[in-house]
Amino acid sequence: MDNNIEKHGEGLNKEIIKMHESMNGLATMTPDKIAKVSERMVEIDRAINTLGRKNTQSTIQLMTLSMLTDSPYRRLRQCISEINKKRDALESTYFKSRKLEIELKEWESKSDELSIVKADEARAGIKSAKIYIDGSLKDIAVLQEAYDEIRKNNNIPEEWDELDAEMDEIRHHLRQAFRQSHRDMVLTGSITQGNAEYLEQYGVHLQTAKNVIAKYIATCDKLLEEGQVPNINHLYEFLDKTVEVFGSEYKNVMKHIGLDNIVRQEYLYRSTK
């Protein structure tokens, strides 16, 4: 094992270390960088347990569409999902490369024309795989950085789990429903049917939402007339207020549907905090 990797001690992902060593060096991912990726993969392996289902329980029970994220937990889950997909593809390429190396030895031992062509093809495949593996590891490293920053900047504990993510879902969907409805009213003057249904799924009366958004738009128009420019934080504050006002309205929808619980903890991955 490379000394620069070995000095990081235990807690390394052995598959990534072995992969790096077998590649005989990569263009960008140096031993120090590989060690850093390997150490972080331990946390990713743990957090992958939060991806046991495509959608959260709240989404499954209250709606059928998965909207753009407005939740730090969703951003974390997206990071983990992307890392996992890239790692699966990375491992597939790695094992194909290893098979090619074995086949290359066999073809190099022969002198017939077909074996020579197959040996050349194997060398080209190994070379291409090396470039792809280096690129995939760079992508994983970037996503790991993003994961760490999102978690820390949103004060999310290291040992977060599926329950933490579920408890943030109502906030996410309310903010998203009002964001999209605000966009509708600014662009068209009315709320589209899809967003009207989205609001209702989380217990918000359409005309109430329209009135609240209209007042916010009027406030923004007045600021603009006075020469002031509302920034994106102005919109975020408005969305936060909608959660404060309408954060419990989904319970009326649950009662209407006949649901007692929206989060069923016995079916969630729980971290051993």
What are its keywords?
single chain; mainly alpha; 12 helices; elongated
How do the helices and strands line up, and which of them pair or pack?
Elements: H1 3-6, H2 14-22, H3 31-47, H4 57-62, H5 72-108, H6 113-153, H7 162-167, H8 169-188, H9 193-201, H10 206-225, H11 232-246, H12 250-257
Explain what you see.
This protein has 273 residues and is mainly α. Helices cover 70% and strands 0% of the residues.
Offer a quick outline of the entry.
This protein has 273 residues and is an all-alpha fold. It folds into two domains: 3-157, no CATH class; 168-267, no CATH class.
Distance between the termini: 33 Å
Number of strands: 0
Mean pLDDT: 85
Low-pLDDT runs: 5-11, 63-67
What number of domains? Answer: 2
Describe the main β-sheet briefly: none
Strand content: under 5%
* Structure class: mainly alpha
Form type: elongated
What letter string, H or E per element, gives the SSE order?
A: HHHHHHHHHHHH
Percent of residues in helical segments?
A: over 70%
Radius of gyration: 26 Å
Number of helices: 12
